[in-house]
Every structure is written in structure tokens, then in C-alpha cells.
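Dear support,

Our group has been running a series of protein-ligand predictions, and this particular one with cobalamin is the one our PI (initials K.S.) wants archived with full inputs and outputs. We had some confusion internally about which version of the output was final, so please treat the block below as the authoritative record. The input we submitted was:
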Amino acid sequence: MGSKTDDVTLSAAAIPADDFAAMRAENLARWPTGAEVDLEEAVEFHKSLPEHKQLGWVMRQAVREGRCLTQPRGGFGTLELQLELMRALDRDGMADIVPTTTDSYTRNEQWTQAETGIEESKRQGRSMLNGFPMVNYGPRETRKLIEAIGKPAIVLSGTAMPRLTCEIGFAAGYSGYLGSGIAYTTSYTKNTSIAEGIRNYQYLDRLAALYLEHGVELHRRQPGFLTGTNVPPSIAITVAVLDTLLAAGQGVRNYGLELGQTLHLIQDSAAIRVCGELAQEYLAAAGFDDMFTPVTSLHWMGAWPQDDAQAAALVSYGGTLAAVGGAVSVTTKSTHEAYGIPTPEANAEGLRTTRMAIYLARHIRLDDLPEFKAEVDLIRREAKPVIDKVLEMGDGDAAQGAVKALEAGVLDIPWSPNRFVKSRVMPARDADGYLRIYDPADMPIPKDVMAVHEEGLKKRAEAEGVAYDRDLAVKSVYEISEPLDRLLPFPWAAE
Amino acid sequence: MGSKTDDVTLSAAAIPADDFAAMRAENLARWPTGAEVDLEEAVEFHKSLPEHKQLGWVMRQAVREGRCLTQPRGGFGTLELQLELMRALDRDGMADIVPTTTDSYTRNEQWTQAETGIEESKRQGRSMLNGFPMVNYGPRETRKLIEAIGKPAIVLSGTAMPRLTCEIGFAAGYSGYLGSGIAYTTSYTKNTSIAEGIRNYQYLDRLAALYLEHGVELHRRQPGFLTGTNVPPSIAITVAVLDTLLAAGQGVRNYGLELGQTLHLIQDSAAIRVCGELAQEYLAAAGFDDMFTPVTSLHWMGAWPQDDAQAAALVSYGGTLAAVGGAVSVTTKSTHEAYGIPTPEANAEGLRTTRMAIYLARHIRLDDLPEFKAEVDLIRREAKPVIDKVLEMGDGDAAQGAVKALEAGVLDIPWSPNRFVKSRVMPARDADGYLRIYDPADMPIPKDVMAVHEEGLKKRAEAEGVAYDRDLAVKSVYEISEPLDRLLPFPWAAE
Amino acid sequence: MNTDENPKRGDITLVTGVIGADTHIVGNRILSLGLEEAGFKVVTLGALTPADEFVKAALETAADGIMVSSLYGQGELDCRGFRDLCIEAGLEGILLYIGGNLVVGKQDWDSVEKRYKEMGFDRVFANGTRVEEVVEILDKDFAARKKPARKKAGT
Amino acid sequence: MNTDENPKRGDITLVTGVIGADTHIVGNRILSLGLEEAGFKVVTLGALTPADEFVKAALETAADGIMVSSLYGQGELDCRGFRDLCIEAGLEGILLYIGGNLVVGKQDWDSVEKRYKEMGFDRVFANGTRVEEVVEILDKDFAARKKPARKKAGT
Ligand code: B12
Ligand code: B12
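Confirmed final output from the archive:
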């Protein structure tokens, strides 16, 4: 935030080595633990880790073996609580990838407040922070977490300001890092400009590339869920493609793409397929032919039902959708989702339910189903014109294009808190359960594609006997969280 | 048991009205509560029920509206406990069909022992019986259960001796009754001959037809799960078709067909399809063109995992499989399945998880998937030769054919406790998760069909590096109950 | 929704926003839209709003109530002294509502409600609360206060 | 599985069956097959076997142990006085194992085990027990008894 690079003209080009060295020095000086970061030492530590604790290798291996890995979220306010949590997720939850979610103060670089949060948490004996304050603990202390588990670890830090946290995380021994400039800036900030968010993530990607130059292939990952609230696959994929181009520009070569589930078996399978394909197509067009882009599916990111039994079906189906869709990993939630951050037990249970669901569906693929093919085609026809237009607006530069397109609403994100995003696009669920776009606002989605969306949505309005208006979109925000007696009542009793 | 009709030559023909009257009189005299049965009064009571409490109507309506209804199992040893249970299933579980499972003494007509069980249960304040002793309570008391709920009720009584229980159940106001001569005799008895079991169910079917003559369309249902232990769809369907023909012969017209889930999305969908189709084809060939045969899918009937979280995935996937397969209803289990009869709470949770899973998958159909079509074709080619041969052995009479075919092993049931069944057929799960037949023993399954089965099973033996022998079948009994660290371990750690 | 009650909803100004470093805007936006549709005057501050901005906006718009959202779990830290801030600014009579996922994790609701009441909130709403319900309770609370704008005469 | 231990498994006869009105044959059949493969002599009574038939078969075959399965929940009623039946028949030293889902519902295991031990079973096994485990424990128990056929000299 407020870094000197702000006035440099934004572009997708790699940050020159010298500039980057200066940026790093300045960045690391912002909080005492920055001084603990020693790249050479960190590189040695990463190299000393067994392959199965290196997420870059593990993701590649999962693709080779056709596995669908599981990964939860999880962060508590003190090292002790975080240790216990990560051990529980590793052992009781059998997580293939163990997470560390940072707290929201850390995400907003409010490290002084995070310090208070640590103290409060210790005093009250329960976590007062919604994640682990990694910067405050610094890389040396944080490495204890890496040493406590037998799996690769990933940093989850939803923010537009990852510069110091990523330095600490990689130095601590995390081999995975989630976050990207467009996705997180549009979904986690209000006043941060898209350009600034992109620059901050270019720093992170450049740092990952620096490790790669030193022989350590870290796994970077793009959080395609955005606002988590009914994001249509085409929009998620558009942002994923743009963020991928930005990461590739900085030298990243191991880059995961995430997609929040729509909860439609066919649509989610198709989205996973198209996401991987379009990323590779646009990478190739930009001259990158050696980037590894595995796709991760995320358990429902919108509002959850309050009933544990009902939520269990979302957890389980989330495993089914990921397995059938051929996702390389799935990010899990728990039956506590509607209430709050889950206990380690509930979190581990969510992992096991998901894992069993994956086991049961591991043989199923829908590739040859006509509806699947139609949906693949539709998503492509929806996303490509937008991506093309964004790139055109940036004269081929993804960074410039993204900023201008978001400003113009050519690229739009539903339910975004960011004031640099129009957020006028309105998604809603249609009569067949597909997540569609009720109002594309200024997005250049072709007429024939919108006709498909409208047809399904009108069918729904008709079936439910309600007006065809934007209340469909609001209803669709609540839908999955509704109690069962509204979703699927016993239909025939007078009561 | 030991009824006078035993020496009458067995046939699929309807029991003549006079004979049946005599049989009923003899039957009802076997236990004091039999005297409470009054057909006219019962008919009036059934007619007084609102349509939505009549299972015959509800099943037809579900087909008309494309619904997948939910139904649990459940029985406790006293009226008080059973009342509480049925209310919980109706309200907290939102069951569309409320069950009464009878206890095993009742099933074996050991009413004196059931009486002890009631007393013991009352004394200990917990159920000492694994179900509700309906005969001991009699129709008048039992009717309180029907009056306490707002849904249709079904009797679940796994036995080859349903004669008195069905009289009591229908007189009490149950509009559904599960059970059939071939399926239950082969899976619930050791010394009962197939002929005797068939005769006992002909009594039950004839009674249902008698109600129909009086204007009350009861729902009869065939328990296609048999021994619940890796029963291949073709065998379940073969038995279903034969039992259907027997029921049709007695005059039943509303007859549900159940299929235990194989836990393979495509195979289960295909099985549901073929089951309904073949039943209608053979009914038509036998001259019955007005029989209603909705198909019900059953949550996994084999051994369950002990971990609740893992079991939750089976519960949820069970809803998914039923919805995607287009089943008209699904019979649910709970996360307690491996341990024992579930508490009302756990049972209700299983219902809600299933219901949510149905909601999520209600739009998905695999009809146009090539693998689905191939599996439909395979199951048909597997079942038809067996059914045809059975009917041929009975000179067109399903009852005679079934007895002879089971004796000869032409029709065979895996893992049967009955000494009149060869039980040499050996099913096992193949490399792609399909339930296949390792050894058909004496069943006339065509060579080209068996080649498909063998290929998949050999592929599995090879993939697992084990011998291609019958241990595959034993392993397949355990498989789904195995802990996750055996089913799907984190693959790369040395540990 | 009936806006013809006494006091008139059109005379009532409500400030909405999501407190602290919290980005969860969806529920707050739906709430704001719903309150507007119901007839209230609504001043929306959006996500990531520091406590003092709520107070500043309430002062500037002579608001009758502040509707604070907090979802991300750290509300307990963010909301400390919120009522005091209002009192300092001369808004001691202002109606304070808060709603969302108010603590970290699944905790006993009664104790959560108590904690926030002690911080000075008049009403505390759990996650999952629907807008219609909020409107109903607002009407009741303002009716009880008779003259909703009274507090401005207060200090 | 090693059959060359002392005492020899081939000298040991075990009666297996499912007690009462219980039809759950699968586990019992797999157990019987496994015991046979491990080298024991096995007399299988199958499903739906009344208590007295176990005792009769054990007498007739001079068995060293009875392996009772009960899955359906009513075992508590079926197994009352099982040890007494054995004693009446002159089999007081016979090894009695029981396994399966031994009560109705999910109950505390320790209390279930205690109940069955009080009924005279030497060992009580929970649902999910694998055959290899059973064989291991049988070996241990028979080794401890040294001469497994001793009980016949008993009365
Ligand atoms: C969507 C979502 C997100 C989206 C938010 C997108 C956006 N910009 O708005 C994204 C993905 C970005 C996100 C991020 C995070 N999230 Co979040 N998120 C959710 C989720 C799934 C749904 C929230 C939602 O939109 N609900 C739908 C709306 C309509 O309902 P609502 O918000 O509850 O609002 C209604 C009522 O509560 C009420 N209401 C709300 N405010 C007020 C105020 C007043 C005065 C009144 C009267 C009523 C009222 O009216 C509203 C309309 O009916 C919830 C879990 C859930 N509920 O299922 C988690 C949840 C809120 N998130 C959580 C967390 C921890 C986070 C993160 C910190 C970490 C993470 N998981 O990445 C970050 C937060 C970053 C930050 N700095 O804030 C936790 C909070 C934990 C806790 N309290 O213990 C939850 C509960 C999930 C969980 N179980 O862990 N999240
Ligand atoms: C398959 C099954 C059936 C099949 C049985 C087919 C057959 N003929 O065998 C069918 C569908 C017919 C059936 C019927 C019923 N079942 Co049932 N069934 C099951 C199920 C799902 C699996 C059992 C199984 O085969 N397991 C696989 C084998 C390999 O494991 P096992 O039996 O546990 O045996 C192993 C060990 O326990 C051990 N072992 C077993 N015996 C012994 C003995 C000794 C001495 C030792 C050392 C070890 C040992 O070694 C075995 C091999 O590893 C269980 C639940 C579960 N476990 O998931 C319910 C279950 C056993 N059934 C149950 C019930 C209630 C019934 C019914 C009464 C009602 C109903 N649901 O219809 C009827 C019973 C009718 C009757 N009169 O008996 C309940 C019992 C309830 C309780 N105890 O509280 C269970 C637990 C389900 C539940 N949660 O409600 N069932």
C-alpha cells in the first residue's frame, strides 16, 4: 500500500531484477520480522523438504496420477492454536494440502491491530482473530508449522496487499500461495485500485519466479471464486485467464486456477474443462507454452444453510462435483460454514466426507454427454468475447486491459465491494439449476448466448410464478441457504 | 408357516375368493389381535384418509410431478417409542413416507417372544427389540401411529411369513407394504422353502387385491435389495420382474420395485431405467397392461464405514444417485448405520441430508451419455436370458419357474442364508467401480456379457496387484466399509 | 411492506455499512436495498468501514439509526466502544443494530447477544436474518420511541 | 497366517453360527471361511440358529469353542443364559466368543462388552472386526489354555 511503484506505468511485463531488489528491500523494512527473511536460506529449506511436502511437485504428481486432492481452509490467532489445527487437518482430516489462512488485519496490513488480536486471543484462551497473523510471528516461528505436518502447506490470504505476507510465507517454507491481482482486488477491497492490486500481485509472482530461478518451483494459485456469490463460470474463467497471463509475465510456471462450484454437475464439469483449456489457449497466444495450470474446484462459496444435515450434503456433493469434473484438487468447507470458522474437528469431518465422496465418484466422467458438450461450448462463447475485448482494450497487455475493462464494465464482477468495479452484472439461477446471467450490464456477451440465459431464467420465473426481474438475482443469493421446507416441501399436504 | 395351503400345487394364478376367505379365517385366528381385523371397517378408514396419506396415490403423484420422495426405516419396541420416532421422522426428518419396521421376532412369527421384548423394553426404558411388534399391539392400538403423522405410512417387515402382520398392518391403516416371496425368502430365511415363501406373499398380494376390489388402492412393494450384499442389478431386476408377475397374478396394480444402490452413478441410473422397463415388458407379455411399477432406489445396503463423516458421504451420495437415476423414491440410512439402529435424530438427519442432495441433483439426467446407454444395454442382455430361462423352466409360470431355477442355480442370489438357494454366484467390484459378476456359477449369463465383466475385474486385480480369484468378491464385501486411509491414502509420503 | 405507519419510514434515516476490515458486502447490500424499498432513507457506507466513519456519517446525515454488519468474525474487536463513540459525538440516543456472524466460530447465541448488548447495541441479529424481519422490528422500535428524531434535541 | 503354533489349529474345532432370529450371514460366512483357511476345524450352523443348537453341535463335534454372531440387535435377548446352557450340557470350559452389532443402536462399547461378559462370553467383538484379528486372539487364548481339549475331561 502506498508503495513507490504506484506511479510506474502499469504493464504485464516482468519487473526487472534490479527494480525488484529495491522493492524487496523497501518492503521487508515495513515490519521487524521482515529482517528475518533470507532468500538463500529459504531456498535451501525448500530444497531440503521431501517432494511430497512441496506443493508444486504434489500438484504435478496429482495430475500424472489422476488424483483429486483435498484442501481445507483454516487459521487461528496464535501459533499454538494454529499448530493444533494444522496437525488435526493433516491427520484427522487427511488433508492432502494443509492451509494457513491469515487473519483479516494481516490481510489489510494492520499488523499493530493483529498484535492486539494475538494478545487478546492468548488472554481469552480462544481465537479472537479469523486467521493466523503470519507477519507478526515472522518466518522463523511460522516454520514450526511446516515442520509439524507431513503434507505441503499453502498460504490463504484474501487481500490485495500480499507483499510482506508472501515474503514471510515463502521464507517460512510454504510451497503454495493463493491470491491474484484481479480476483482479490475486486472481491476483498473497497478503495484499492485495480492497478495497485495488480502491482502488488506482480510483486508476489515475481518473488515466486525468483525462487524458481533458484531452483524452487513454488505453486502459485489464482482464487477464481472472486466474491463467492453466484459468479458465473465465464466471468471466473475470464479473470482466471487474465491473472494467469499476469503471473506468466512475471515468470511463474506452476499456477493453479480455482473455480467456485455452481452446484450444477454438468455446468461445473464444463467450467473446469473450459478453464484449463482457455488458460492454455491464451497462454499459447501470448507465447507461453510451458505453464502448468491445474484446476481446483471449491465447495459452494455462497451462503450456506444453517442445518448441519443439509450442509453435509453440500460438503459431500462438493467432493462429487470436483471428482466428476476432473478437478486436480478441491477446497473444502464444513457443516459449520453458515455459523463461523469451524472447529478443527468439524473442519476435519468436512475433509473426510469430501474424500469419501471423491472415492465414490472417481470413475465418473461426463465428457461424452451432449449437455456437457453444449455447456462447454456455451461457456467458451461467453468468455472468449470478453477476454478478447479486455486484451484489445489493453492493446494486448492484460494488466492495462483489466484496469480499463473493469472501469468500463466490459469486465464486471457481481456483488463486488470495490468502487473501481461497476458490479452491475446480475447472475441468477435458472429453471434447470444452471447459474446464468440475468443482466450482463456492459459486458460484451453475444446476443445468442444471452438468449440461452434468458430462456432458462424466464422459464424459472414462469415456473415459480414470479416476475422476471432482478429479484431473481437476490433470491438466488439466498437459495442454497434456505431451509429444506422451502426448497423441497412435502408437496401435497394441506397443513 | 405350516399353513394348509402348502400342499396345493404352487402356481402364479390368483387364489380363488372362497379359498382365500378360508385362509384368512384360519390366519386371523393365530393370535388374539387377529380378531380385531375388520375388512369393511378398515376399508372405510382408508377411504377416510386424505389422498396425501395414501401411499398408492402419493407414489402415482410423485411420478406425475417428477419427484423423488424420501423414506427412512425405523422401528422401536413399544408404541410410545414408535410414536415419538414416527413423529420425528415426519417432522424433523421431513420424510415423505413414514415407515414402521417390525422387530425380528414378529418377522419370524414368534409373538410370545415379542411380548417379552415389549415388557423388557418398557422395564429398561429403551428398545430391546429391533422393530415395532405390530401383531402384539394389534390394529386398534397401531392405528394411533397412522393418526399421529401427516404422511402415508408403510410397513417394513423383512420376512417370509407376512400373513398375519399384513392383515394387522392394512387394518391399522398402513397404505404401503414392503416384501415379496422370492426376494425375502432368499434373503431372510434359512429353512423356508421358496414355494412356501411365495405362497405367503401370494396371500399378502391377494389381500391387497381384496382391498382394491373394495376401492382402496394400496401400494405393494418389492424389496429388490435381497441380501443387500453386492447384488448385481441384473439379479435384483430378475427377481423384481418375477415377484412383479406373481403380484400381478393376485390382482395387485400398484407395485413398487426397489433396487439397492451399487454406488456407481451410471450403473445405478441404468439399473433404475432397465428395472422399470423390463417389469413392464414382461407384464405386457403376460397380459398385464395396467400395472403401475415405480422404482425406488435404496441407500447402500452393504457394510458401512464406522466413521460418521465418511458415512455422511454415503448418505448424501445416496440422494444424488436416486435423483440422477430418476427414482420415484429413495430409502435412506443414517451415519449410525455401521453401529446400530439409529436414534430418531440421526435418522432424521439422514433424511435431510438426502433431501438436500436430491434438491441439488434434481435437474441432472444421464440418458444421453454413451456409457449410460452401454450399461442399459449390458444389464438387459444380462437379465433377459435369466428371466426367460426361469419362465421357461416354469412353463410360463413365474412361481414354478422361480422354485426350479433357484434349485438349479439358474437363478442365484449372492450371500444368501437360505439352504434352498445355491448362493454360488460371486459378485465383485471392477476397476471402474461397476459391480460385476466374478463367477456366475450356474446362471445362464451370455458369454459376451461375462467377457465384459471379466475384463473389468481382471483390470482391477491387475491394478491392485492381487490374484484374479474369489478373494476379489470377499474384498468387495468390505470395501465400502474400509477406513479412508485404506481407500484413498495420501499417496506419496514415505511415513 | 406498509410504509403508512407512525412514525413515517420516510422521515427516518439509517446508516448502513460493514465494520472494520470486513469485505462481506452482499448481505449488507441486500439489507440496504430492502430498507430503501421499505421506504427508509438509507446512507450506505459499504464494506471495510471503520467505526468512526459510521459515526461521522450519522452526524452528517442526522441519522436515526446505524445498521452495522459484521460477518468475518472480528466484529468483537471492531465494535468495542462503539456506543461510546456515538455518545462522544452527541448521538447517545441513536438506535444501534448489528447483524451477521458476530464472533469467531459457532458460539452460544445468548452469550454472543449479551456481549454485543453490553457494547451498547440495542438489537443483535444472527446470520440468516431476513430483511422483512428487520423492517418489522425497526417499525416497532421507532414506534416505541414515538418521535424518532428526538435524540437530535437530546444533548 | 501361521498354523505351526502350539497348540495346532488343526486340533481345534470351532462351531460358528448366527444366533436367534438373525439372518445376517455374510460376516459369519466370511469368518467361517477365514477360520478354515487359517487351519481350524469349523462347524458352520449358518443363520437363524437357536442357542440350544449351538450347544448341541458343540457337544456332538466335541468342539473347543463357539463363535456366536449377532448382528440384528436382539442378541441381548437371545444370549441370556448361554453360558448356563453350555454348563448344563457339560461344556463349562468351552471358549465362548461373540461378535457383531450386539445391542440395539449405538451404545457405549465398554458397557456392551461388560453386559456380554456377564452373560459368560470370554471375548466380545465389535462390528468391523477383521478375521486376522480373531485368529490372532484365538491363538493366544488357546495357547494360554495349553491343552485346548482339556475341558472335555472336565465334568
Ligand atoms: C460469500 C462469503 C464470502 C465472500 C464475500 C464476498 C463479498 N465481498 O461480500 C468472500 C469469498 C470474499 C469471503 C471472504 C472471507 N470470508 Co466469508 N463468507 C461468505 C459466506 C459463504 C456467505 C456470506 C453471504 O454473502 N451471505 C448471504 C447474505 C445475504 O447473508 P448475510 O451476509 O448473513 O446477511 C444477511 C443477514 O445476516 C442480515 N444482516 C447482515 N448484516 C446485518 C446488519 C444488521 C444491522 C441487521 C439487522 C441484519 C444484518 O441481513 C442480511 C440479508 O438477509 C459466509 C458463510 C455463510 N453465511 O454461508 C462466509 C463467512 C461469513 N466468511 C468468513 C470468513 C472467515 C471469511 C474470510 C476472513 C476468510 C476466508 N474464508 O477467505 C474472508 C474475509 C475477508 C475479509 N477481510 O473480510 C466466515 C466468518 C467466520 C466467523 N464469523 O467465525 C464465514 C461465516 C464462513 C466460515 N464459516 O468460516 N466470504
Ligand atoms: C447387509 C445387512 C443386511 C442384509 C443381510 C443379508 C444377509 N442375509 O446376511 C439384510 C438386508 C437382509 C439385512 C436385514 C436386516 N438388518 Co441388517 N444390516 C446389514 C449391514 C448393512 C451389513 C452387515 C454385513 O454384512 N457386514 C459385513 C460383514 C463382513 O461384517 P459383519 O457382519 O460385521 O461381520 C464381521 C465382524 O462383525 C466380525 N464378526 C461377526 N460375527 C462374529 C462373531 C465372532 C465370534 C467374532 C469374533 C467376530 C465376528 O467378523 C465379521 C467379518 O469381518 C449392517 C450395517 C453395517 N454393518 O453396515 C446392517 C445391520 C446389521 N442390520 C440391522 C437390522 C436392524 C436389520 C433388520 C432387523 C431390519 C432391516 N434393516 O431390515 C433385518 C434383519 C432381519 C433379521 N431377522 O435378521 C442393524 C442392526 C441394528 C442393531 N444392532 O442395532 C444394522 C446394524 C443396520 C442398522 N444400523 O440399523 N441386513
